[in-house]
Amino acid sequence: MTESMRFALGSIVVGLIVLATKYAAYLYTGSIAFYSDALESIINVASAMAAAGALHLARKPADHNHPYGHTKVEYFAAVLEGVLIVLAAVTILRQAYFSLIEGPEIEFTLLGVVLNGAASIVNCVWAVALMRVGRKHRSPALVADGKHLMTDVYTSVGVIVGVGAAYVTGWMILDPLLAIVVAINILWSGWHLVRESIGGLMDEAAPEEEQELLRALISQHGDGAIEAHDLRTRHSGHVTFVDFHLVVPADMSVRDAHEICDRIEEGIGQKLPGARVTIHVEPENHAKHSGIVVL
């Protein structure tokens, strides 16, 4: 089992523990804000399950129906997570509305606050770990899960402060109002997740810093070639697809040109593990005198 999959499965366990803890905090206090916090944890569990399933499918080897592999399935998991976040926000807004109409009631207990705070600490530690492992293995599903959990941490801290303020001031209306703020923040988080995932599905180019690295690697390892141009990149889950045209002297043998390509592919693979490189070799009369000059 890969490290990514272990963390994905671990997220399900952590999510269930946090959900039980936050729901207990809601039962002790009756706070709608705590209820909204617990509801988001249900979304965390569902998202973790989706991420685990996506990671399992994404690691399947390419086949005749999917010659480029199954890596894009991770983006679908991230989109699903964004949709679930939106549904959670709508449910929270509905509950807050009824609380405002009927009049909020909170029974402030220290145990409820402690339980919610402990759950938030667990979420924070796990979110940092998920984002670290997700970036290490270039997994959009894990990174999205980590970002979502970190958003949950921020809202949980705000909820605890707000519930405490409602108790101290006696303004119980702060509780449903705070739940509305949490819902809006959750919507914002969901929008960002969906937008980033759609970018992956639409084959957006790799970040500019990654493209700069690729240009440097091609120039460094392309000794014997003249230039490279029409560099194109796209991400598909943890895989980066790279293709470009490599101009070589017209009298160069196929064997020598192939050796240059091998060096470039190996150099890129060392810096971007899992990258899939396609190189189109051209004679020097196809040079554009622009793009990447080989050192």
From TrEMBL:
Listed GO MF terms: cadmium ion transmembrane transporter activity; ferrous iron transmembrane transporter activity; zinc efflux antiporter activity
User: Which positions fall inside the Cation efflux protein cytoplasmic domain?
Assistant: 207-284
InterPro entries reported for this sequence: Cation_efflux, Cation_efflux_CTD, Cation_efflux_CTD_sf, Cation_efflux_TM, Cation_efflux_TMD_sf, CDF_Transporter
Where it mainly occurs, coarsely classed, is membrane
Can you say where in the cell this protein is located? Answer: Cell membrane
Bilayer topology: Multi-pass membrane protein
Instruction: Enumerate the transmembrane spans.
Output: 7-26, 32-55, 75-97, 109-131, 152-171, 177-194
Q: Which residues form the signal peptide?
A: none
Q: Name one GO cellular component term.
A: plasma membrane
Where on the tree of life does the source sit, at the highest rank?
Bacteria
Instruction: Enumerate the UniProt keywords alphabetically.
Output: Cell membrane, Membrane, Transmembrane, Transmembrane helix, Transport
> Which GO annotations describe the biological process of this protein?
intracellular zinc ion homeostasis
| Residue ranges occupied by any Cation efflux protein transmembrane domain in the UniProt entry | 11-202
Q: Give the protein family.
A: Belongs to the cation diffusion facilitator (CDF) transporter (TC 2.A.4) family.
Q: What is this protein called?
A: Protein p34
Q: Which organism is it from?
A: Pseudovibrio exalbescens
